[in-house]
């Protein structure tokens, strides 16, 4: 008698596959981006109005910024603020608004803008530390982060003393960068005081009035109202930037990984242009430069193309300060925004021909840190403690000579 075939165990049901989340239509992303932009511009004017009210009733801000006589303190203050909030866009927009309302001097703002550039490059070092366990990947990713850091540090090392000393020797008290930016602002025809009927101020006025009314409900004095209003504007600006970046990052960066591998880094000019364009698109050099760190660690991105990409990314982030100046269209605010642009253009003009210098330093220190990771942490210690202490001590001695 033939044996019956052994019964087969029933097959487990096929795994249910979740349907892919449909991508948000481009037109809806456009509306969302426009709303974020409107909130961003409104936040700048809300903050400006609050600071103006507070500054008119109190001399606290004037006394606080008296320390701006030491330009190195202004620079390191911006470094710390930018590193804490992880956004040079936030810091530069705040600086432009403070200048427009008269709560920060133009001279202090110029050096603070330089500090914002350094602060935004710290994020890439922190991202590189995630590869600490894989020695080869860590060496490449830390070297990539250093390339960005060194461009900003070396540019500040050249332009900070040049701006400070040229300002001290000129009758106007303004350095060469500030004078050049101010000349461009004059050519554009910017006014010395704000124009109350400027288009941006007109369209954001309803939001300013709303926040002014809300601040007045909960504050007993005019000084407190101005301070609360400035704080609410600051929070709204941060929220608007976060959502703007999140929206644009999803639209622009989703398909960039493959393009980075095959197309974007064929030439230095292309890498520079992609760095500038992608940063303008997502309004955050922190995102675009930090994206390069793991790609460089995996060997996807040619190391020799990273410096022009980082230079382009730094130029792209200046759009935020220019945008902030449109919300406060006065000569001083536009001058600060243009100083930010000139800082990065001049830095590129200096260090691209001399690119062997930052590249060799980055490669040397990257190998050193991969052999002994304590050098990676020492680099952060150097930026946030040693350089500030030494820099403040030297500048204080020079000022009081």
From TrEMBL:
Transmembrane stretches, start-end: 31-51, 72-100, 106-130, 142-162, 226-245, 332-354, 375-399
InterPro entries assigned: Na/Pi_transpt
Localization per Swiss-Prot or TrEMBL: Cell membrane
Keywords associated with the record: Cell membrane, Membrane, Transmembrane, Transmembrane helix
Pfam families for the chain: Na_Pi_cotrans
Highest taxon above the source species: Bacteria
Protein name from the UniProt record: Na/Pi cotransporter family protein
Organism the protein comes from: Natronospira bacteriovora
